[in-house]
Structures are given as structure tokens and as C-alpha cells.
Design goal:
- Helix content is 30%, strand content 16%.
- It is an alpha+beta fold and 199 residues long.
- It has a 3-stranded antiparallel β-sheet with strand order 3-4-6. A two-stranded parallel sheet has the order 1-7.
- The structure holds iron/sulfur cluster (2 copies).
- One iron/sulfur cluster (SF4) is lined by residues 73-75, 77-78, 98, 103-109.
Amino acid sequence: MKFLKQITNYAKEAVQSAKYIGQGLSVTFDHMRRRPITVQYPYEKLIPSERFRGRIHFEFDKCIACEVCVRVCPINLPVVDWVFNKEIKKKELKHYSIDFGVCIFCANCVEYCPTNCLSVTEEYELATYDRHELNYDNVAMGRIPYKVTQDPMVTPIREFAYLPAGVMSGHDLPAGAQRAGEHPEAIANPTESSESSEN
Ligand code: SF4
Ligand code: SF4
């Protein structure tokens, strides 16, 4: 009886192993039918998704030096350098800076800024040889944001979120190919989107 039990267990394990090998190979064979989706960076670049949080843009003239951005930042990162102007009884902004070598790009500062002088851009290529260069002052932060779709040297490739249903690669897509699902603004305002589609 003991011998028979051992044989049964062995057979069960052999069937189980064959099943797992089959599952693994099915993934391999499935990928053999697909084209490579390698993006030839830096000649090709993926278009970041709508809610991507990249380098922060700053508008000096809008800032009222309230320091809300500092208080809501998890690491109190923004440096707001201001003086009090006794004549007009208002704060005057002198310098503003954020060290993007330390920033975690949570965008809390952008969300809470009362004058909307901060905004997130889709710029993500911030690499430097010296980390001190990542400490952006108000001039560097005021630079017009970089856009993949407006760079004549780059072929923009649609990333996964922009592809039609069932399409895995943004290469060789017909120009009018519609993305799967709705745009974020349509999701945020479902009544407006249904009204516009009825018109
Ligand atoms: S929250 Fe906005 S307005 Fe206030 S100091 Fe920060 S950037 Fe300036
Ligand atoms: S993005 Fe987040 S971590 Fe960076 S400065 Fe703003 S609040 Fe601080």
C-alpha cells in the first residue's frame, strides 16, 4: 500500500509540474507573436500621461510669499525668500527655489498654492552630473516646460494609456487611431462630456 501511495503522489506531482511548464511556455509563445515595443530613446520618446507629475513650473509674479507650499510639503522643501515692505504693508518675494534632487514630486505644493503659481509639467529629463544643479531657483523653474510632442528632433510615441484597445505598441499607429477609454476631463465631468457628445 505504501508503495502504491508513493506512485500516486509521484504521478500527481509530475502532472502538476507539466501543467506549470505548459503555463510558462504559453506566455513565451504568446510573446513570440508580438512585435518588440522598444522605444529608441532619445530619438523616440513616450508622451507622458495627462496626470504625470514632472518638474514644477513657477510663476514669480503670481507668488504672494504666503509659504503655504512650505507647510504642505512633506519635507518643507520650497525655499521662499521674502522681505516685508513697510510702505505697502505686504511681503515682497525675493527668491524662490525647490531642490529637485530632494523633491518627491508629490505635487502637494501645486495643489495647495492659493494663487496657482505652481504647476506640474511633463518634463522628466532632469539628470545632471552634479546634484547641486538640481536646486532650481525661480528663473530655472520659470522656464517654459518641455513637451515631447513639440520637439522637432524627437518622434513622439504614444504610451500604453493612449493606445486603442488591444494595441500593445505605439509604433506605426494610424494618425486617427482613438485611445481606449475616456479622457480624464470626460471622467471628471461626465455630464459635460455626454452633453457634448449629444450635440
Ligand atoms: S503657496 Fe504659492 S503663493 Fe504661497 S509662497 Fe508658495 S508658491 Fe508662493
Ligand atoms: S512636489 Fe511635494 S516634495 Fe516636491 S516641493 Fe512640492 S510638496 Fe514638496
